[in-house]
Amino acid sequence: MEQHIRVLLDDDKGGRRAAISLVLLAALGLVFLLRRRGGDRLSSFPGPRLAAWTRLHSVAAVLTGREHEMMLEAHRRYGPVVRWSPNTLLISDPMALPKMYHLRANKTPHYNHSPGEFRGMVEENDWRKHRQKRHRMDPPFSSKSVQDDEPLMDAFIAEWIDALTTKFTMPNSQVFDFSDWGNYLVLDIVTKRFFGREMGFIKHGDKTRMLADSRANGPAIHALARLPQLKQFLLHKFGRFLIPTAGDGSGLGNVLALRDEFLQERLAKDEKNPDVGLDQVLFDSANAGMELEELKEDILFVILGASDTTGHGIRCLVRNLLQNPSCLVRLRKEMDAAVMPPVGTTDRPSSITFAQIKSQIPYLSACIRETLRRDPPIVSYLPRWADDDHNGTGGVELCGRFVPAGVEVACSPYVLSRSRDMFGDDADDFRPERYLESSTPEWVAKAARYDFTFGYGPRQCIGQTLSHFITCKTIVQLFYHFDIELLEPGSGKAFLNWNYSGLKIRLTRRI
After folding, report:
1. Is Acyltransferase a UniProt keyword of this protein (predicted)?
2. DSSP string covering 389-428, please?
3. How many other C-beta atoms lie within 10 A of the C-beta of residue 431?
4. Which of 40, 80, 171, 352 is placed for a possible disulfide with 399 were both Cys, Cβ 3.0 to 4.6 Å?
5. What is the pLDDT of residues 134-167, one digit of tens each?
6. 5 within a domain of the structure (yes/no)
7. Predicted pLDDT at 511
8. Does residue 203 sit within a domain?
9. What is the phi-psi region of residue 37: left when phi exceeds 0, alpha when psi lies from -120 to 50, beta otherwise?
10. Domain assignment of residue 82, yes or no
């Protein structure tokens, strides 16, 4: 994930920032356009003509905010293998995932955004080093740890429901933009779990401007990801001018200050608090020699990554259910049967557990899977180096074509999720039933096996169990407590992930 990059200037310099970015990209584009390496070993692969000559083809695409749609269109025109830049091939066949994202697959410089020598697990290119860094961060995100924190999540969801009630239903129902409210909830839960203190998004919203800054910087960040040489030059030569620092007043600077404050607070403790995720990392003797600068990168990823993925999933699931009333009717029927207290009892609806949700509301899991398939949080392509597949040929075969070693190969979660070969002619539609009675168990298992929503293989998102847990519990409580009217579905552009706003709704209390 690239969302923890901290580049460019403060918000009040947006015009100058954009101008500088355009000049740099234009200058570099001229260099790349005139400079062509000898011997085009990918000349036989189809794709847009400009893609064979310059990386600026991909840069221009991502800056439109709809590169994911352009990639899908390219695959439907050219086939399962598409050349997207001089040394990058995009793959649309889910069956190729095990060959591309296997245990020993190394990341390309596409992911490297830190000016220093220290890299957290997200930026780490080498698969061996990644495995070690990932292992030290695993305990707070294990299934057991997530389940143990269910009461904490219940408390925050109850606070979230109360905040929505107070702000938007009293004294009268108000129309408001729901787009970021899932992010607010997730950020408070995640920071409380990991640091022992929440950031206060439910109470105060985006007062740090963290979300606003991340989105404002998105276009330039992800454009530079496609120009790794320029990116590294800028970071090493001018990083101190371009990258926010803790407490500098920018949105990401504010978050960095909070991160450092939280970390120092935990380091000052004499003994481990088993309820605090960061303590599970700091007080593990196996992590005694870790670099704190690397840990800081991982901590920032925990904060920003959770918001971008789970918050987006909640937003899109609410929108999809409201746009498909028959799906909401079916979900609410199962939900009310499970949540409504039996006659003669005083059980509160918040008492329903995740285990009960899984067993008594199976349609919810289908709705979540379908939302993440149709509207994945990450839409861009995620490159790896093609390597030797142990046949001694110095390359790998993908979709019946030989790809030489040293080529970037990549899939996009958005493209794979719209595969008509996998999901049928209605792949663009929201239809949760595809995971239930309308499909065979064999197909459902196959769809899960080749699911790319949270990545694939050993670099799958570390927080996906927590994400599913929070989403299930949140949706049940939201639709149990409120009738929701959709006024505007909202819209957004996508870079690595989504800049989405305008999901206008009106809430009415049901209970």
Report:
1. no
2. -SSSSSEEEETTEEEETT-EEEE-HHHHHT-HHHH-TTTT
3. 18
4. 80
5. 999 999 999 999 999 999 999 999 999 999 999 9
6. no
7. 76
8. yes
9. beta
10. yes
Q: Which residues of 359-380 are buried (b: 16+ CB within 10 A; e: fewer)?
A: eebebbbbbbbbbbbbbbbbbb
405, 376, 407: which is closest to 82 by C-alpha? 407
What is residue 139's DSSP assignment? G
Q: Are 141 and 463 in contact (CB under 8 A)?
A: yes
482-494 and 498-509 strand pairing: antiparallel
CA distances to 131, 135, 190, 295 from 281, rounded to whole Å, are 15, 10, 15, 9
Among 102, 83, 106, which Cα is nearest to 401's? 83
Residue 155, domain CATH: 1.10.630.10
* Euclidean distance between CA atoms 470 and 185, whole angstroms: 9
Cα separation, 453 vs 446, in Å, equals 14
DSSP string over 42-77: TTTS---GGGGT-THHHHHHHHTTBHHHHHHHHHHH
| 3-state DSSP assignment of residue 274 | coil
Q: What is the dihedral of CA 356, 360, 363, 365, to 10 degrees?
A: 20
Query: From the CB of residue 358, how many other CB atoms can be counted at a distance below 10 Å?
Result: 13
Which of the residue ranges 28-42, 285-299, 411-425, 431-445 would you say has the lowest mean pLDDT? 28-42
Domain that holds residue 418: 11-509
Contacts of 198 (CB under 8 A, 6+ apart): 156, 187, 188, 189, 191, 192
Residue 203 CB neighbours (<10 A): 12
- Residue 383 three-state SS: strand
The answer to whether position 32 is within a domain reads yes
Q: What is the DSSP string of 326-345?
A: HHHHHHHHHHHHHHSPPTT-
* Local structure of residue 107 (DSSP, 8 states): B
**Residue matched to tokens 């199962």:** 334
Q: How do 81-85 and 88-91 pair as beta strands?
A: antiparallel
CA-to-CA dists, residue 67 to 14, 28, 286, 311, angstroms? 23, 20, 42, 22
CB contact burial 479-506 (16+ within 10 A = b; e otherwise): bbbbebebeeebebbbbbbbbbeebbbb
pLDDT tens-digit series, residues 379-402: 999 999 998 655 556 789 999 999
For residue 83, the 8-state DSSP code is E
Please count the structural domains in the chain. Answer: 1
Which residue has 């600077």 as its token pair? 253
Sort residue 348 into left (φ over 0), alpha (ψ -120 to 50) or beta: beta
**Six-digit token string for 375:** 């509207």
- Higher-pLDDT residue of 260 and 1 is 260
Return the H-helix or E-strand segment holding 384: strand 382-385
Output the pTM of the full model: 0.89
Q: How far apart are CA 232 and CA 264, in angstroms?
A: 30
